[in-house]
Structure formats: structure tokens, C-alpha cells
Amino acid sequence: MERIAERNTHCLHVPATLPPMAETREELRPRSSAAGTAGLDSVEALDSDNEMERGLSNRHVQFIAIGGTIGTGLFLGSGKSISLTGPSIVFVYILVGVVMFLLMRAIGEMMYRDPSQHTFINFVERYLGHGWGKFAGWSYWVALVLLGMTEITAVSTYFVTFFETFGIDVSAWKWLIEACFLVALVGINLIAVKVFGEVEFWFSMIKITLIVAMIATAVVMIVIGYHYPSVQIHGADAPTPAGHAGFDNILDGFSIAPNGWLAFLMSFQMVFFAYEMIEFVGVTVSETKNPRQVLPKAINQIIVRILIFYVGALVAIMAIVPWRNFTANEDGSFASPFIMVFQYAGLNWASALVFFVVITAASSALNSLLYSAGRHLYQIASESHSPTLQKVGVVSSHKVPARAILVSAALIMLSPVINAFPQVSSAFVLFSSASSAVFLFIYILTMVAHRKYRQSPDFAADGFVMPAWRVTNTIAIAFFVFVYATLFLADDTRGSGIAGLVWLVLFGGYCLLHEHFQNRDLKGALGR
What we know:
Elements: H1 2-8, H2 25-28, H3 43-46, H4 58-69, H5 72-85, H6 89-113, H7 122-128, H8 130-164, H9 174-191, H10 193-223, E1 227-228, E2 243-244, H11 248-251, H12 261-274, H13 291-300, H14 302-320, H15 337-344, H16 350-382, H17 387-390, H18 402-412, H19 415-419, H20 422-454, H21 469-486, H22 491-525
Antiparallel strand pairs: 1-2
Helix pairs in contact: 4-10, 4-13, 5-12, 6-12, 6-13, 6-14, 6-20, 6-21, 7-8, 7-20, 8-9, 8-16, 8-18, 8-20, 8-22, 9-10, 9-16, 9-18, 10-14, 10-16, 16-18, 20-21, 20-22
């Protein structure tokens, strides 16, 4: 019904038989109401317009949720996080993880109410209006494409590093590596959603296996009181000092902010971006079997995953490697903590193993980005008034949005071309970093939409209800604002914060003004 009202804005003549304003967007927006709550419609009834196939099983969704929680940041970037604030980084990971869990509970509550939606972004439009919905939809898709471009570059870089551990130089073939990986992942996304789910299942299994193996190795080293000599770690400029395994490495000289409160505050943005894309499971609901049984399980287990895979891994790492040993190389990079633990244990082939898993993690991230970008562009195109864009918003015979996936992949494939021109590449780095800042706007809008949902007649008290929503929702919004503010604390992130605000003001302002004048014209056409 809402689409009918929007298309009426382009008509010069309104038929006399038009129902009395039942189809205007103002009437469709939920009204604040303290009275009663809506009941849950059946998934079958809600799926009447859902052309996608529900091919994802409980096993797929559970591991997709795990994959969305674990990225390359844990394997390679956690060393920089530890260097900023020492053992207290564990508390930062827990705090940020709890807030991200609150975000997922809000998304989960709305998706549980209407599991036929292809993306949680739709709730921004439903409860905050078409202007904010347009801003969120396009911004999220652009951010996904930009992240995809950085991920495809990361995949080829890790691939080159992996072969370097065997003395093989394939750096001249980076462009071909990127093309091959992208073609393979696009093929996976085009075949069927259950094939995508199966691939993500095994990607997640590989990541989980490495983390569990590292934690188990650290436990054994601690129990036997293992001592290790000075070692030249792969990826570190200088040899690391000799040491031993023990929890005293964590407790010795413990301080919340050993490098100052500025460094401690900056650690929040680093940890936040490590959790980025945790909301991906909120894009798979319309293609999940038994979504109202599967979704709550996947979301509620996020806290357990955070405690095991992030907190458990960090504690294990710092019990083996004193946190003061994490120092930056001349180029600002850090050695992988996972490689350090395994090399201290005497496994000199650890670099190849870790970078194989990192390639897997980056491929998983790119695979998920293609999936998500395809669904978001499909949603945008299917609701567009543009005949050209509408051609993208169709589902293939395999019941996947093939055209939207291919368009998104084609833009991601521009990454090697952009990297070939230094000036263009510098601008791209700024835009891609700003895209991460845009995620914060999306999360804030999602939480505000959740507040509107709870105050609307749509609210279902017998659904997957977020506990103490007034408090927890407010905490999440305040936290996301705080994280955005930390972007202005350092020179290397200030540009991202400014670029994000420029995008919000210019594109957000355009979307809101366009919506305002469109609604005004519609009211005039209907005689109001």
C-alpha cells in the first residue's frame, strides 16, 4: 500500500475512486499508542510477497551469526588493540560486545515481528519515514560496496603473504587473485542461498577451529609453566624477548589506562569496528527456515560467542605474550598475536596456518558482503520509481537477486583499477574509512526505529521482546554517539568522522527535503 501512495506523487490526475487517504504514507506510519498490542501474523501470511527461498537451515544461520562476530580484526588487529590499553582491552571488548548484543536484540525483535523483510533497514523506513529509509538504504549499500572493495584488496594481500611464507612471490598477480576470488564468491551467491549458507558454515568452522586450537595451546603452555626463548616473529621487525606462559603476564602492573585515557578511549572505536557486520544475521531472516525458532537462538548466543572467541582468545594471548611486547613496526603494522603464540609454542609453520585462516576470514567477509549488498540493492531497486533501477530488483530462477548481486560485484571489482592510481586510491581510502563511520548512523537510526516500533500498534508483546527496552535502547544510542565522538580524538580517524558528517548533512538532508516536498505535492494532489 505504501508503494501505491508513493507512486501517486508522480501522477497529475488522481482517480475519483481513490479511497479516502487510506493509501497516504502519513496514514501508514505507526501511531504512538499506549493501548493494546498487535498479535503475531503467521510467517506464511507475511511471506505472500517474499520471492526468496527459505533455504537457510538452523545450522547455517548459527554459523553465519558466528562468522559475523569473528573477522580478520581478531586474528591480525588485536595486537594493536592490546598495545593501546593492555589487559583492560578485555573489558572494552566485553562492553562493546554487550552494546552490540543490545543492537541485535532490537533488530531481532523487529525481524521476529515480520520475518519476511529482506533487511532490517526496512524498519527504518517503516517507523521513521521514507526520507530516513532512503538515506539508510542507500548509505548502507554504498558502505557495503566500499567495504567489499577493501576486503577484496585484503584477500589478495593475505594471499600474497601466505605464499611468501613458502618463499613464493605472487605479488605481480594480485589483480588476477582478486578477480578469481570475486568470480568464485559471486558464483556461490548466484547458485542458491543454501549453497551460500553451506560455504559460510565451513568458513566459520575454519575460524572457530583456529581460535579453539590457539586457546588450547595457551592452556597447555600455562599448565606446564612453559618458557620460550627470544623469537623472530613473522611480521615483526625485531625479535621479541624471551618469556614464559602464566597469568602473571596479565596481572603484573595491571592498570585500566596504562598509556593514558586518550589511548583507552581510542580503543573503543577499534573494538567497535572489529564487531562491524555483526548485524549480518538480520539480513538472512527472509531466507531462513522456521525464522521464529532460529532467530532468537542465534541472537541470544552472541554473548557466549563474544566471551569465548574474543575474551577467551585475548586472555589466552596476553597470558603467553606480555602486553608490553606488542609494539608497532616502522610502517605502523603489528605482528599477529596468533602467530606469536604458535611460534612461541615451537610451531614455525604457524604463519602459513594463520594466514590461511585469515584468507578464509576475509573471503567469508567478502562473501557475506556480496550477499548483503545484493539483498539491499534488490530492496532499493524493487521499490524504486526508476524503470532502469527496477530492472535490477528482480529475482532469478534460483530465487536469488542475481542482477543486484552482479551490479554490486561489478563495483567491487573496480578496486584493482582504483589501486592502480595513487591519487584516486588516496581518496578511496578516505571514503572507505568514512563508510565505517556511516555504520554508526545506521545503528543509531535502527535503535530509534525500534523505539518507534515499541510505541506503535505493531508491537507484539508475545514476540522476541527486548528486555527493559527504554533503558537498554537509550544506552545503545548513547554508546554509538560516544564511539562516533572518539573518531575526532586522533588525526588518523578525524577525517573519517568529518566525512561521515558531511555525508549525513548532504545526502541525509537531500533525502529528508525530497520526502518533505513529495509529501506536500501528494497532499495537494489529493485535495488536502
